[in-house]
Fold Complex III subunit 9.
Amino acid sequence: MANVLRMYLCHDIATVICTPTRILPPQLELIASIFVGAFAFEVAFEEGANALWDSWNKGRQWKDIRSKYIQE
Protein backbone atom coordinates (compact mmCIF):
# COMPACT_ATOMS: atom_id res chain seq x y z
CA MET A 1 0.00 0.00 0.00
CA ALA A 2 2.85 2.36 0.81
CA ASN A 3 4.40 1.85 -2.63
CA VAL A 4 1.11 2.63 -4.33
CA LEU A 5 0.68 5.78 -2.28
CA ARG A 6 4.28 6.76 -2.94
CA MET A 7 3.67 6.36 -6.67
CA TYR A 8 0.69 8.70 -6.62
CA LEU A 9 2.02 11.14 -4.04
CA CYS A 10 5.45 11.49 -5.61
CA HIS A 11 5.45 15.16 -6.45
CA ASP A 12 8.69 16.21 -4.78
CA ILE A 13 11.55 14.19 -6.27
CA ALA A 14 14.11 15.72 -3.90
CA THR A 15 12.49 14.23 -0.79
CA VAL A 16 10.69 11.13 -2.06
CA ILE A 17 12.37 8.40 -4.08
CA CYS A 18 9.91 7.23 -6.70
CA THR A 19 10.21 3.61 -7.66
CA PRO A 20 8.27 2.28 -10.63
CA THR A 21 5.74 -0.40 -9.85
CA ARG A 22 6.32 -3.82 -11.35
CA ILE A 23 3.78 -5.59 -13.50
CA LEU A 24 5.31 -9.03 -12.96
CA PRO A 25 7.56 -10.41 -10.23
CA PRO A 26 11.28 -10.11 -11.05
CA GLN A 27 11.69 -13.85 -11.63
CA LEU A 28 8.85 -13.88 -14.15
CA GLU A 29 10.31 -10.84 -15.91
CA LEU A 30 13.65 -12.64 -16.18
CA ILE A 31 12.09 -15.84 -17.52
CA ALA A 32 9.88 -13.92 -19.95
CA SER A 33 12.82 -11.89 -21.25
CA ILE A 34 14.88 -15.06 -21.71
CA PHE A 35 12.09 -16.72 -23.71
CA VAL A 36 11.46 -13.62 -25.83
CA GLY A 37 15.18 -13.18 -26.45
CA ALA A 38 15.64 -16.84 -27.38
CA PHE A 39 12.68 -16.72 -29.75
CA ALA A 40 13.94 -13.52 -31.41
CA PHE A 41 17.45 -14.97 -31.74
CA GLU A 42 16.09 -18.20 -33.25
CA VAL A 43 14.03 -16.32 -35.84
CA ALA A 44 16.91 -13.99 -36.75
CA PHE A 45 19.42 -16.86 -36.95
CA GLU A 46 17.07 -18.95 -39.10
CA GLU A 47 16.43 -16.09 -41.52
CA GLY A 48 20.14 -15.30 -41.74
CA ALA A 49 21.10 -18.93 -42.31
CA ASN A 50 18.44 -19.30 -45.01
CA ALA A 51 19.61 -16.13 -46.76
CA LEU A 52 23.22 -17.33 -46.66
CA TRP A 53 22.26 -20.79 -47.95
CA ASP A 54 20.18 -19.28 -50.77
CA SER A 55 23.00 -16.96 -51.83
CA TRP A 56 25.56 -19.81 -51.87
CA ASN A 57 23.27 -22.13 -53.84
CA LYS A 58 21.72 -19.65 -56.25
CA GLY A 59 20.65 -21.39 -59.44
CA ARG A 60 20.90 -24.91 -58.01
CA GLN A 61 17.71 -25.03 -55.98
CA TRP A 62 14.30 -26.13 -57.12
CA LYS A 63 12.84 -22.68 -56.66
CA ASP A 64 15.43 -21.35 -59.14
CA ILE A 65 15.10 -24.04 -61.85
CA ARG A 66 11.40 -24.84 -61.47
CA SER A 67 10.41 -22.73 -64.47
CA LYS A 68 12.57 -24.91 -66.78
CA TYR A 69 10.62 -28.07 -65.94
CA ILE A 70 7.09 -26.97 -65.05
CA GLN A 71 4.93 -24.79 -67.23
CA GLU A 72 1.88 -23.25 -65.61
Observations:
- The mean pLDDT is 82.
- The first helix runs from residue 2 to 8.
- Helices lie at 2-8, 26-56, 62-69.
- The domain at 23-72 is CATH 1.20.5 (Single alpha-helices involved in coiled-coils or other helix-helix interfaces).
